Amino acid sequence: MFRQKSLEGTGNTKRFQAQKEKGLAPSELFHHRPDYGVLICTTCHYAIQPGAIRRHLKDIHHLHHEKRRPFIAYTKGLKLKRPEEVQSPLPGDFPVPQLSVEKGWRCLAPSCNYLCASNKRMENHWPAVHAKKGDPETDWHFTLLQTFFRGRMLRYFTGQNQRQLQNTRDKPVQIAKAQEVAVSQDKQLEISLAKSLQEKYHLDALDSQLLRHYFDFSYKTFVTNKKTESVWIDVVPGLACDNKFLLQGMLACTALHMAHSNPVEREKYTLRGCCHQEAAIPEFRKAIENPTEYNCDAIIAFAYLLVVYSLATDLEQSSNPLLIIDARPFNTQHIIPPWLHFIRTGCYMLKDVWHRIESGRASILAYAWERNLDEDAWSEESTRVYRHAANLLAESFAYVDRAKNTIGLTAWNILGTWPVRIEQGFFALISEKHPGALILLAHYCVILNQIGDCWYIGGRPAILIASIARILDKRWRPYIQGAVKEVLGPGGIEAV
Length: 496
Description:
Structural class: mainly alpha
Shape: elongated
């Protein structure tokens, strides 16, 4: 997957696009809006801070020193304002043609003009600013957003009048009409994004088909909840307009999705997906090595697609398990697949721009990797006792496996492997019906079941594990299902 192979024609297309950008006159690449005092990049669709023009030309458009001179000279005569001085457009002037449009939310609290692109941020805004939990049905409203600047100077504006939005709170007909308008706007935005991608990257017939399938079907398979839907249908395609490796990742995954859905044409779609992925990986590597506030959102989005593509290709090959990706004698390089390596090390690799990712358009994807293991966690002492018991249980399984073929199993060495060695505190956890303790005890029943035929042991393993299954909360039962089936037979937990 990581071979340095390019999609046929990709190299020529890439050079053509680079030459096309570098061939633009300063007044074509930059659009000056004197009414706002900003300079908008016509290919990036956002305004450039006055002090960052040189860096933008170098890092984003890869113009060498000599090539940058006419652009710098062009901007010197322009009156540009600092980001904090720029006034947002009036509602009637929305949208600003040269800026990208994205979906977002507007707070409906009186005298509050808070705007954001993330539903999670709006949920956090209400208790922090209004001292109560907000109601998504009445306290904020869908809207379309624009911003002149990115990064730390990001400040959204919209064209909808807040008073009009507040008046829709108690009027179902107006709410329904507003929702219809929102759906229409969504579709228009989707069509616009697809057209922009097709034109910018000169997609052939097959890639255009893949792109349509992405917008119609494939993006839905990446959605984990309502909050991520807008990211995959709007934000990610928008980011792909400026980051070709992300578009190639989208098309690669979509191709495998179509291969899965159309077995007759599996080979055609799989091959195209492979070509796109192999063209994307070198550019993704370059982005990872040099993350900036302009490409970090695309890196996070591509990381998701990398996981999807890796798992899908492993499934197609039917030879790679989830974690051990090589059947040859193990070594650490073959145990951890590339997608898992990125997830494990990605935060460190992106540490210099993580503050930008957390406030960016793809922030919800970054949050999805984070799991607060301390939330509703066990106490420190309970965790210590549990870990000690778990280590001893692992040793017990290893001992039983050896003993079966050497000294044999008896009630004494079975009972002595674990119950005799665990701490007294563990029995306290059992009496408290601690889920971790009960799960470990259920798995010990597998060991105890090795001597279930002994007349003075009798059916105790089955009785014990059945009792655990009854008192263990339903959300924890999947973790003992294997042990239950091992002890109780094929009926498993359903027989309890």
